[in-house]
């Protein structure tokens, strides 16, 4: 197992799984902990059979782990997620030491026999609290990450009929919310009612999941301990009840519906005494009454709800601009404050009447199940409207299995704006060292252009909107914003500057047509300034504009020295340092409206230089479309959305496509295309878009896959390339390397561990050009002429272009690739 406090260079001795304290979360605010034998020695001596089963005999590497007990709840969640999103630990079958594998995300990628020399970076890693998990794009993801990230499943010991787990590892996982007791914050569960088929697709090895009936005796001994008696008895009772039901009945019986931080309750029938108790707490917190269940029958509701034209819709919002629908009837044209979404009182609106919509499109729709009063909306709905900035409310009744107090939120229901292509589109972005002001500059650009009605203002918190980004005050994942100048429409990518997130920076830079290099006048050129510029050059960005930020905090002489240093660096990296535009200003002054000569005026000058210096790219519209996947999202009620920059071709709604990569090929159909939350009739090469795909779940698609026209691209794992190896002065490696070194290969949005073979000489020296044969551990989309970067740990070794595609590796060659050096030496000795 993993010890979080071990030093970085110290080997970790393996410990049996059964002797580790295990904390299993299976219900809101209920934690079942099975203590180690050292803590309850007498108890375990008396009941030896109650020890947790030892699963160390798995045919796969067991990398499940637990955080230290002294961690807070938030630290534990982050720690667990780090283990799933940034590498795994594995134990060497030779020296028995534990090694950290930063580029292995799935334990099933490891062979049954694993050795230290298979590790790419040859380094140990600390198990301290991680700096950040994955970016949390929306509220649903936040709940998912908080309650499901890295969860150890209760089925591992007890074989329960359901268990919370990682969605990415369980394609058939269902998602539920459950409100526990009288709390207003529910737990988000990812639930699987496992059987033999489901168990084989689980995160943990199939042999670790035993049927519930085989574990009843093991659980009985735990029930004797008073500490676990009440909670386990309740869980066992539910498990016994669920065991008797078929799978579809289990799903119906053990499903929950709730809303994050809203006025909600479980779908079970609630006693009047419970409602009164909840109402007191609810009124004390929100200062309004909670809705009381009506004594009328559901059938009466159905008749009343459908008697008026069958369109049970109420729109509540500010009437600055009409957004009409053929099913909506306008009855209120009174103007109200834009920020007060409840200025039209809900109790004055009747079913099928509506007010005009606000100037900004509403971001969600509320569906109230079984309204208790057809002529008005209750206070709970009014509260939800205010909390969620909603303007669309639909009231439906009589749905089976749900009571009148259940409320479900659906996001992004409002009619989307249509993107009008009136200007040429160009992709730019900010690169540079951490804390030099890249995100602040991005926010300042939107603020200055918003004053000219050319953009929507985005604050710093709107761009870095993930909780971990707000906590640390840095950018972690790339963020995208939209704006336009007088001559162009721009998609702007804000890249992370921290050295730990170079992988995300490469993904963002690969989508740019030009870049804005941000350098702080107070620091000058820093390590990531040099590395970002080097990577931008390798990826193929030919035009870079420089913005010297924070000039309000440095004297003129310092600013001039920084400019000279930047121009020298640009020339060193292969750019024309004398002709590169350099603008001096302060993004913070522009954002706060201070000192316009270095604030808004500097931003305006920067945008003019970007318009003039970065040419409009020539797009390949005639070729079959190709979309490298940057990220994947699940939209409740809609489906799975794939985002990325369209590399070439044209993409329309209804287009059939293939998703290729990571050893998979899946066929699907595009059912919708959007760019910056606006619908697109036709996406063209260069557009930063989101595509809604049919019949594919979020967990089936990963970053690095490619969506393309069927039959036009294939995944390969054996290619030849022309590569330039960087010298030490250029930021590369100081020592030469020989064949069979394992590097990390970055191309498009994917990265993959790659074995390098030198066909024509023994070694490659830093600063040399070489022809290399690259063998990828996974088949990825590769084409002749495709650019890539090779990295080893924190170093960029070189850059190259794929020149030839060879036949994919055979199973025998792939096995040799996985087994590595020892297998080659063994084969050589036999000869």
UniProtKB/TrEMBL annotation:
Main location: cytoplasm
Domain PWWP: 149-215
Enzymatic reactions: GTP + H2O = GDP + phosphate + H(+)
CW-type domain boundaries: 83-135
Record's subunit section: Monomer.
Family membership: Belongs to the TRAFAC class translation factor GTPase superfamily. Classic translation factor GTPase family. EF-Tu/EF-1A subfamily.
Protein name listed in UniProt: Elongation factor Tu
Classification of source organism: Eukaryota, Metazoa, Ecdysozoa, Arthropoda, Hexapoda
């Amino acid at each position: 197992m993993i010890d979080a406090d071990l030093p970085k260079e110290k080997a970790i001795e393996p410990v049996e799984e059964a002797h580790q304290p295990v904390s299993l979360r299976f219900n809101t605010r209920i934690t079942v902990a099975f203590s180690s034998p050292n803590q309850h020695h007498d108890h375990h001596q008396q009941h030896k059979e109650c020890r947790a089963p030892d699963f160390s005999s798995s045919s796969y590497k067991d990398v499940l782990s637990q955080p230290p007990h002294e961690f807070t709840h938030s630290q534990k969640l982050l720690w667990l997620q780090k283990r799933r999103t940034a590498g795994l630990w594995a134990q060497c079958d030779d020296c028995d030491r534990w090694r950290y594998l930063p580029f292995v995300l799935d334990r099933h990628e490891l062979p049954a026999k694993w050795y230290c020399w298979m590790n790419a970076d040859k380094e140990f890693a600390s198990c301290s609290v991680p700096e950040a998990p994955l970016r949390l794009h929306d509220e649903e993801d936040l709940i998912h990450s908080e309650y499901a990230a890295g969860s150890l499943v209760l089925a591992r010991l007890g074989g329960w009929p359901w268990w919370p787990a990682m969605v990415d590892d369980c394609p058939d996982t269902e998602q539920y919310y459950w409100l526990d007791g009288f709390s207003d914050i529910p737990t988000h569960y990812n639930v699987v009612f496992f059987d033999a088929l489901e168990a084989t697709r689980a995160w943990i090895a199939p042999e670790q999941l035993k049927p519930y009936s085989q574990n009843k005796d093991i659980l009985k001994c735990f029930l004797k301990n008073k500490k676990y008696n009440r909670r386990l008895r309740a869980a066992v009772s539910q498990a016994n009840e669920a065991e008797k039901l078929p799978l579809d009945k289990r799903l119906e019986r053990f499903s929950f519906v709730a809303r994050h931080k809203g006025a909600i309750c479980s779908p079970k029938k609630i006693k009047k005494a419970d409602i009164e108790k909840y109402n007191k707490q609810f009124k004390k917190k929100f200062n309004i009454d909670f809705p009381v269940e009506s004594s009328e029958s559901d059938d009466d509701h159905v008749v009343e709800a459908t008697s008026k034209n069958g369109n049970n819709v109420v729109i509540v919002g500010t009437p600055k601009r009409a957004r009409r629908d053929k099913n909506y009837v306008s009855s209120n044209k009174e103007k109200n404050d834009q920020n007060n979404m409840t200025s039209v009182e809900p109790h004055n609106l009747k079913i099928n009447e509506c007010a005009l919509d606000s100037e900004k499109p509403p971001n969600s729709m509320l569906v109230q199940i079984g309204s208790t009063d057809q002529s008005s909306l209750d206070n709970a709905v009014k509260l939800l409207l205010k909390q969620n900035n909603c303007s669309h409310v639909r009231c439906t009744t009589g749905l089976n299995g749900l009571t009148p107090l259940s409320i479900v939120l659906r996001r992004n229901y409002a009619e989307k704006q249509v993107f009008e292509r009136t200007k040429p589109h160009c992709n730019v972005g900010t690169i540079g060292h951490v804390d030099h002001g890249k995100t602040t500059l991005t926010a300042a650009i939107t603020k200055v252009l918003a004053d000219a009605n050319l953009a929507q203002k985005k604050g710093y918190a709107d761009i870095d909107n993930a909780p971990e980004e707000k906590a640390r005050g840095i950018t972690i994942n790339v963020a995208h914003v939209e704006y336009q100048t007088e001559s162009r429409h721009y998609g702007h990518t804000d890249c992370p500057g921290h050295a730990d997130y170079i992988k995300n920076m490469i993904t963002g830079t690969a989508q740019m047509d030009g870049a804005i290099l941000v350098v702080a006048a107070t620091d000058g050129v820093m390590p990531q300034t040099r590395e970002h510029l080097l990577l931008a050059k390798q990826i193929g960005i030919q035009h870079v504009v420089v913005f010297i930020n924070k000039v309000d905090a440095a004297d003129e002489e310092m600013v001039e020295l920084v400019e000279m240093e930047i121009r020298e660096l640009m020339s060193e990296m292969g750019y024309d340092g004398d002709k590169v535009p350099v603008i001096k200003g302060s993004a913070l002054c522009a954002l706060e409206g201070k000192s316009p000569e270095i604030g808004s005026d500097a931003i305006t000058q920067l945008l003019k230089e970007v318009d003039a210096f970065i040419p409009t790219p020539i797009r390949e519209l005639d070729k079959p479309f190709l979309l490298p996947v940057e990220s994947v999202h699940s939209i409740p009620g809609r489906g799975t959305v794939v985002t990325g920059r369209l590399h070439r071709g044209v993409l329309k709604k209804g287009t059939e496509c293939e998703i290729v990569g990571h050893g998979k090929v899946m066929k699907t159909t595009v059912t919708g295309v959007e760019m910056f939350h606006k619908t697109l009739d036709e996406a063209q090469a260069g557009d930063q878009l989101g595509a809604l795909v049919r019949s594919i779940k979020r967990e089936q698609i990963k970053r690095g896959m490619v969506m393309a026209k069927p039959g036009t691209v294939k995944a390969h794992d054996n290619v030849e390339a022309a590569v330039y190896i960087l010298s030490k002065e250029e930021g590369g490696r100081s020592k030469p390397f020989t064949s069979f070194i394992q590097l990390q290969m970055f191309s498009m949005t994917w990265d993959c561990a790659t074995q390098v073979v030198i066909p024509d000489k023994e070694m490659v020296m830093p600063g040399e050009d070489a022809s290399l044969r690259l063998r990828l551990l996974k088949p990825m989309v590769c084409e002749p002429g495709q650019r890539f970067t090779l990295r080893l740990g924190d170093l960029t070794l070189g850059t190259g272009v794929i020149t030839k595609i060879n036949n994919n590796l055979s199973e025998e060659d792939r096995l040799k690739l996985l087994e590595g050096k020892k297998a080659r030496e063994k084969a050589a000795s036999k000869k």
